[in-house]
Amino acid sequence: MCGVVGILGPGTANHDLYQGLSIVQHRGQDAAGIMTSDGERVYLRKDNGLVRDVFRERDMLQLKGGMGIGHTRYPTAGGDSRAEAQPFYVNSPFGIALGHNGNLTNAARLREELFRQDLRQLNTSSDSEILLNVFAHELRAAVGGSRLRAAPEDIFNAVGGVHRRCRGAYAAVALVVGAGILAFRDPFGIRPLVYGVKKGEGGDSHMFASESAALDVLGYELRRDVAPGEAVLIDMDGRMHARVCAPAPRHAPCIFEYVYLARPDSIIDGIPVYRTRMNMGISLARRIKAGWPDHDIDAVIPVPDTSRTAAAEIGRVLKLPFREGFIKNRYIGRTFIMPGQAERARSVRQKLNPIPSEFAGKNVLLVDDSIVRGTTSRRLIQLAREAGARKVYFASAAAPVRHANVYGIDMPASGELIAHNRDAEAIRKEIRADKLFYQELDDLVGAVAECNPDIGEFDISCFSGDYITGGVDSDYLREVDRARCDGARMRAESCQLDLSEVTNIGEWRN
Predict the structure, then answer these.
(1) Position 131 confidence tier, pLDDT thresholds 50, 70, 90
(2) What is the rounded average pLDDT for all residues in the chain?
(3) Contact (CB, 8 A) for 311 and 322
């Protein structure tokens, strides 16, 4: 996952871009970048680090112009080189910069096509650079060789070319010099992208962002989401142009956005994230109550912060005290997106410290949003016991994560997922809980779908192994595993991939 922001307005865009990136910082802590334009020249600053560290006052003063895009990156198998920081830029045609959230599943083939057929040289291993060059090539073809500016029709034709060639998940913002700010989303709408407007005396300002919280904080009114397969262009005069550029889009947003990735104060695809997490807690509490009516739980304790909403509802439904048992050090980032298992393990103890009085002599139910590797869960259970808990039960607001995510969430190789080829009892023993409760997958989908009945399906691939875009075959999954093992400095052969549970490995469906 990454965070993207795009702004065009009558004033200088740099301040709102900086603030917008700060608000979506939770989506990526590895690197940050901003590119702006005054309509003729472009100005770029990007580097490894948090937004507050990358941009100093002198940097902000150099980011001139009323339009720009920004990006926060989180570590992937591509590494942490400064060269991987976004936005990426090409100077032909016109000058185009792009920031991308997602993952292209046919990146290897596209890389070969760009070099041999489109005669384009790539400088990084990032699929975002591939996406930019595919768009640039298609825009060059759309405008021909004579025009000095790209018309909306040309840009929409170019995005149509992107949809024909690219598979996977992509929510992108792009700056086209002389044309405006562009936002587009893959034909399944897997990764989020919202649009808002802020009224001003000098004219309207337009903003795209990964989450609506960025719009809210900066005073923009949320107008709508960019639709699956749609491109939205705000031209240099502030006029909006929109077109669905994919032939047969299907709306299937990533359900893990609601489980963990997104801020609870965001609304994505018309779905309030906070409400979905309440629903997850309610359905999980009912499952616990039905299966264990005579439970001996004394208190419900969340694992800060994402699970707090679900845990509070579990306590309410079960009529149990809701207690804060762990204090979080907010100066340590999200351990899920930290590079390397060793760093994650060290950070758990530094990040969360137990309050002994909330554990001593009690049977506690710890609630987390999900269980991925299981090492954090095991460590938290150990901390609870060391703080004096008699029994420690554990609940996951999500279903078991059994499969690799190939749409922009850099989950570990499937062999490193604790639920891969394990049932709930085996997982319970592995994390050393006295009891373990998982959300049923149907209940998880229902918790989110209830908030917007117009969305008929979700990407649930990391739970089900059903890859909705097609084109995800066994060879590709082996490469994903190999890359992610290497990224964690592990021997590739130590990661075992069982393809027997992977379904819907098939053709690209438009």
Answers:
(1) very high
(2) 91
(3) yes
Q: Amino acid identity of 337?
A: I
Active-site residue flag, 166: no
Q: Under DSSP, is residue 167 helix (H, G, I), strand (E, B) or coil?
A: coil
Structural contact between residues 317 and 466, judged by C-beta atoms closer than 8 angstroms: no
Distances (CA, A) of 367 to 141, 303, 432: 53, 6, 15
With respect to CATH, is domain 3-251 assigned 3.40.50.920? no
Say if CB 32 and CB 84 are below 8 A apart: no
d(CA 188, CA 405): 15
State the virtual CA torsion across 338, 339, 345, 346 in degrees, nearest 10. -80
- Alpha carbon distance 196, 225 (integer Å): 9
With beta carbons less than 8 A apart as the criterion, state whether 42 and 175 touch.
Answer: yes
The amino acid that residue 485 corresponds to is C
Q: What fold is seen in the domain 272-329+343-451?
A: Rossmann fold (3.40.50)
Out of 225-229, 342-346, 397-401, 479-483, least confident range: 342-346
State how far the Cα of 326 lies from the Cα of 355, in Å rounded to an integer. Answer: 6
Catalytic-labelled residue, pool 2, 462, 485, 495: 2
DSSP assignments along 21-86, one per residue? HHHTGGG--SEEEEEEE-SS-EEEEEEES-HHHH--HHHHHH--SSEEEEEEE--BTTB--GGG-S
Q: Nearest Cα to 189, choosing from 220, 231, 235, 138?
A: 231
Going 110 to 111 to 112 to 115, the CA torsion angle's sign is positive
| Maximum separation of any 2 CA atoms in the chain, in Å | 78
Instruction: Please state, for a pLDDT cut of 70, what percent of the chain lies above it.
Output: 90
Is the confidence at residue 487, as pLDDT, over 90?
Answer: no
- Give the number of other CB atoms < 10 A from CB of residue 308: 18
For the chain, give every domain's residue range.
3-251, 272-329+343-451
